[in-house]
Structures are given as structure tokens and as C-alpha cells.
Amino acid sequence: MSHQIAVIEGDGIGQEVIPAAVEVLESLDLGLEFVAGDAGDAVEAETGEALPQETYDLAAESDATLFGAAGETAADVILPLREAVDSFVNIRPARAYPGVDAVRPETDLVFLRENTEGVYSGHEDDLSDDMSTLTRVVTTAASEKLAEFACEYVDGEGFSVVHKANVMRKTDGRFRDAVVRVADEHGVDTDEVLMDAFATRVCLDPTQFDTIVCPNLAGDVLSDLAAGLVGGLGLLPSANIGDDNALFEPVHGTAPDIAGEGVANPLATVLSAAMLLDHLSYSEESERVETAVETVLAEGPRTADLGGDANTEAVTQAVINEL
Amino acid sequence: MSHQIAVIEGDGIGQEVIPAAVEVLESLDLGLEFVAGDAGDAVEAETGEALPQETYDLAAESDATLFGAAGETAADVILPLREAVDSFVNIRPARAYPGVDAVRPETDLVFLRENTEGVYSGHEDDLSDDMSTLTRVVTTAASEKLAEFACEYVDGEGFSVVHKANVMRKTDGRFRDAVVRVADEHGVDTDEVLMDAFATRVCLDPTQFDTIVCPNLAGDVLSDLAAGLVGGLGLLPSANIGDDNALFEPVHGTAPDIAGEGVANPLATVLSAAMLLDHLSYSEESERVETAVETVLAEGPRTADLGGDANTEAVTQAVINEL
Ligand SMILES: CC(C)[C@H](C(=O)O)[C@@H](O)C(=O)O
Ligand SMILES: CC(C)[C@H](C(=O)O)[C@@H](O)C(=O)O
């Protein structure tokens, strides 16, 4: 069975790292079919829409989507795209690689971020000239769905539930209760950590944690914190998983300072492509790509962000040679 | 003019570090009048209320309040107390001290956290069996008030405005616009950073930032992140400032593992007392206390959390001897 992969480069280095990841995928000869879609600042400037309906539909209809990055329009592109693929969880591994400068080289975490609600539900109002409100939504259904996924994901291990239920008692209380209840039903161990305490503790000793299950904004901020601990966003992949559908993207942005020069680090996107392979049940190929990236990080050419002087193409070829 | 200081020890090591800080204050012979109030888990167990009305009133009527920590009832104690003193800003310095183990020894930050609204406004509802909502409130008035304070606080320097206005467009958009407008009016430079990007960047290089102005929950989480970078909560003071009134507290909690042993580190509370002195215009005394703490940290006895074996009393006396 051939899979259709939507490929949305977006802006800036998205246009360099996505082709690199596609090259890696193509070198595996899996007969994947790539279909390009447009989104981002440039598209908005041209058409008035950062995410044209046909790109939304393409993501919704494809088996998986690979997305690069968008500039000023990032939120207008990525939030609807996550919705297009009906994604209920955002998987964000944050792992330090040997030989790559990291504040905390022992970091090896995976965030499972709720991906549909919380403050992202989008209900905001200007109540008066002086006041705006945002309605933060938490449902038992979304919390349970995330928890079911988490229980399967950790495969016999436990996970940490990170929340702020001491202040957001009803909403994060509902989240926490639902997640812990589902975990209990599956015999999965959980420990609870308040999100502020988590921020302190993960800096002091990231090895205290493995898998972290949390609401949407907590996952956004705390996974970016973990990115800081592993040395930056340059190597962080992510996956947005839906029932029939998924979207994979590097955590980094468009890097306007280096865009167009062909020197962007493609590895976060290549690792996102590895997550895509795993999602489509090409588990063996997924592991081969990951191992190839590790080998290149340990021995191969490096882009400038990792202290090397190789360009995007050289690093991409090095990965392909290791496959 | 003599000042009345409300003294609320709370639970756990609050009962050890607050007396230590009071000893330091008394040694200065300023004629401060200390009045004790009760709050916390033990009070709740006894009376059914974590924060008795008379303690609330005491804080509201005193010139300043020194608070230790509360256990399970922390939110029920500290959130109303912040309201009792009409506090619109929570000042949280996070600074690494020479000789104290820190992930990022070059960290020297001050968070000015909005202290009245955001997700802390407390409007939560269970809309159905499946759904809860929380109404996040942002007003121009509170944002401007914080910004006015920030402009004075930075005394000619600039500050960073940290927010998530790309997602919370109306609420954090209102916050950002109000803060930037007030700063512009005062000729104060600002730069804007998204809160997730801030979490990454502060780990990679905390010297990029100095003073950070942000909404309530952002300040909670990001200042705790900074606490992780400076080696933990043990040395972090904080101030909740109102127009006529203020409350000072260490950022740490009740430390149940060591409570009752007389070995808690009193320095976060002593530094909070120094902030109290400054607030009451005893600036010279405030600086003397800070300098004494620095000297003790560099040369003097240390509690176990800093790798020493001195007890609370020995460290407190060492500070007093340096005054
Ligand atoms: C661009 C923005 C809307 C997005 C988010 O907040 O989810 C980004 O920060 C991310 O984490 O992918
Ligand atoms: C105890 C809790 C309500 C409080 C807060 O969230 O403000 C604490 O974390 C703090 O930062 O002082």
C-alpha cells in the first residue's frame, strides 16, 4: 500500500529542511507519494491567506503531513493544520545527543502535550475597552484520549502528570483526575508535579522525569524549556497524532537570519520524518534513520549551529550514506 | 515612625525561617513592631479555615507582612493574602551567588509578575459532566499599573515583555500593547519574547535578559525555571507590592522532609526581609542585610542544601554578625 505524504515547506529554512528530509525518505524506496502544499507568510502576502483551503484539505486527506515552519503567520498555519489532521496529542521528545553541547547532557524526555484545547480553544472576547477574556476549556474526553495514548506510549513504564490544579482547580483538576483515572485502569504508574515545580526540578535534574503528560500550553512552554536544556531547538522533532492522520514538524522556526543560504540544520526535520515512518508502521526504517542521525551527530559533518561548517546538503547526504 | 510588620510563619520550615528573619530584622534596632498571625494546614485542621479572617485583616492593616510557607493549603493562603495587601506586582529576583552550585551561574534576572489576574482570576465553571472552563481575565488597567511600576523599577534600563500573544491574541495582546505603550511613554526600551521561546533562550543564555515583565502564570512558571538555573529555590526571595501595603515571602515551600529539625536554610527569607526593609525605605539597612547574606554565602557556614552542615540558627547568627 502506498502512502500519500503532504509536504508543506512554509517559509524561511522550511524550504531547505523539508526537501532534505524528503530526500532522506525517498532514499528508502518505500514508494511514498509526496504532494506539495503551500502555506506561510509568502502565501499570505500573495493570496491573503496563510493557509489556503486546498492545503488544509491536502493535510486532512493525506496519510501524513511533513511541515517545515512559518514566519509571522506561524499560529495561523500550524494551529489549523493540527486541527486538519485531528491531532489530539503532540509528541515532543527532547533528548541530548552525545557530543552536542547541552546545558543538561543527561536530558532524555518525551512530552505528550494535549493538542486540542486549554487556552488554545480560541474563545476570546473584548468585554469592554478595558477588559479581555479567554475561555480555557478542558474536557474529560480529550484528557482521557490523551491518557489512553500515553498509557500505550509508555509501554509498561510510568509517566508524570504535570498541571497547575492548585490554581486551575476545576479545569486542570478535571485534566489530572481523568489522566490519573485512565492510568490507574491500565495499571500505569503516575506521579503528579505542579508545572512551576516541574520547571525548577527539570533544570536541577532532568533524569527525574521520563514521559510527561500535560495540558496544551504547559506542553508548549515546558518542552521548549527542555529544548533549552538539550542545547536548543535545532535537533527537536515533533509529531501531531490523530486517529487516521498525523503531522510531523521540527520544533524550530524559520530562522530568518540564515534562511536562503543552504546552511540550515536539517536533522530536526529528518528526525520528524523518522517519527512519520514509525507512525506509518515502517518501524525498522524509522530506527535506521534515527541511528543514521546519531552516527552523523557523533562522527559526521555538522552545520554551523552545532559548531561545524557543513551545509544542509552535506549533512543530508551523510545521513543517507549511513542508511 | 514605627512600622507594624505582620508575621505569618505558616507550616513546616516556615516556622523556622520566619523567626530567623525576624531575628535579623530585630538586630537592626529599627523599632519595628511584629504581630503574629496564623495560617496554613495546621490552622485549617484546627479551625476549618486555612486563612482565618483575623490573619487576612492583620496583613491588610499592617505596613508589611512577612510570610513563610503553607503546605497543602498554599493556594488558599497565599492567593488571598496577596489580595489582602492589594498587591499588583510580584517581584521575583533570581540570581546565582558565587560559590553556590548553579546550572547557569551567570543568571541575574528579576521577574515582575502581574499579580491579580490572568488564570488566577478564579472564574471556573463545570459546564457539563464532560467540560470545565476557566475565564482568563486581562485588563488594560492592571497591565498599565504593572508597566508603570516596571518603568520606575528598571530606572533607565529596558525590560523584556514576555507573553503568548500569538495564541492568546486578545488577552495577551491587550497585556503586551498596554505594557509597551506605557514603556514608550516613559522612554523605556522593551523587547518582546514569546513565553515558550523565552524558556528555551533563558536556558541557553540567561545574560540575554535582565528584567522580565509578564502575566501571572507566565511569571509563576518562568521564575521557577530561573530558580532551577540558579540552583534551586533555597535562595529566592519575593515581594508582593501593593499601593499602601506589601507581603514578602521566600519562593520555596514548607520542605516537609526537613521541617522541625532546625536545619532549614533561612537565607531566602532573610533576603525577603531585605526586600521588606527596602520597601519601607530602610534602603541602607536593606543593602547591609543583602551584603551580609552574600558574605555568609561566600565565606560563612552553610545549611545542608548548599552542601554545608550548619543549622538555621548558626547561619542566622552569621548573618547578624556581618551586619
Ligand atoms: C506557533 C505557535 C502557535 C505554536 C504553539 O504555541 O503551539 C508553537 O509555539 C509550537 O509549539 O509549535
Ligand atoms: C501556591 C501557588 C498558588 C503559588 C502561585 O501559583 O502563585 C506559588 O506557586 C507561587 O508562585 O507563589
UniProtKB/TrEMBL annotation, chains A, B:
<dbReference type="Pfam" id="PF00180">
    <property type="entry name" value="Iso_dh"/>
</dbReference>
<keyword id="KW-0560">Oxidoreductase</keyword>
<dbReference type="InterPro" id="IPR024084">
    <property type="entry name" value="IsoPropMal-DH-like_dom"/>
</dbReference>
<dbReference type="GO" id="GO:0006099">
    <property type="term" value="P:tricarboxylic acid cycle"/>
</dbReference>
<dbReference type="GO" id="GO:0004449">
    <property type="term" value="F:isocitrate dehydrogenase (NAD+) activity"/>
</dbReference>
<dbReference type="GO" id="GO:0006102">
    <property type="term" value="P:isocitrate metabolic process"/>
</dbReference>
<comment type="similarity">
    <text>Belongs to the isocitrate and isopropylmalate dehydrogenases family.</text>
</comment>
<protein>
    <submittedName>
        <fullName>NAD-dependent isocitrate dehydrogenase</fullName>
    </submittedName>
</protein>
<feature type="domain" description="Isopropylmalate dehydrogenase-like">
    <location>
        <begin position="4"/>
        <end position="319"/>
    </location>
</feature>
